[in-house]
Amino acid sequence: MMAETTTTIKISRGAFQHVESELYAYHDTKKEIVRLKNEILHASPVRDENVGGGRGNLPGDPTGRTAVLMVTHRRVEQLERIVEAIESVVERLPEKKRELVKLKYWTRPQTLTWDGIALRLDVSRRTAINWRNEIVYAIALKMGWRRLF
Questions:
Q1: Among 3, 53, 109, 119, which has the highest number of CB atoms less than 10 A from its own CB?
Q2: pTM given for the model
Q3: CB under 8 Å to 5, separation ≥6 — which residues?
Q4: Distance of alpha carbon 58 from alpha carbon 125, whole angstroms
């Protein structure tokens, strides 16, 4: 199934690198989603504590606060789509390809070269790189990137 994916879509080098950067940032993205959701859930209206005084220094713009919350909500949705695409592809990978994702993108600090990763997986360097390409293309396809040149 993965091999079919690599032949049916083409993506630009920039798009390829973008997907790879999302793979590297996967765990941070999950943390960011939690942070943003907490920010939305715990956002409270600004109270006017300036009883009987002059003008307060806090913005009293409910429209502005609503706009910020909406943008934050859209950001959460975008990040969730990215995480879902990555998880959907990685969960269906055979064990060795899942291990490649862990070794290449989720191990910090990254100390292995492609040769080291291939050695750990007991495959050739070329095979490891081909697997990486298949995984990145599958994620790009899952994210809805059909043909990006």
A1: 119
A2: 0.75
A3: 134, 137, 138, 141
A4: 58
d(CA 15, CA 77): 20
Q: What does residue 86 show for φ and ψ, rounded to 5 degrees? A: -65, -50
Helix %, strand %, coil % of the chain (to 5): 70, 5, 30
Q: How many residues does the chain have?
A: 149
Q: What would the DSSP string read from start to end of 72-100?
A: HHHHHHHHHHHHHHHHHHHHTS-HHHHHH
Strands (E) located in the chain: 10-11, 147-148
Compute the distance between CA of residue 12 and CA of residue 43 in angstroms, rounded to an integer: 40
**Residue 72 has what pLDDT?**
73
Convert the pLDDT of each residue in 42-94 to its tens digit. Answer: 765 555 555 555 555 445 666 666 666 666 788 889 999 999 999 999 999 99
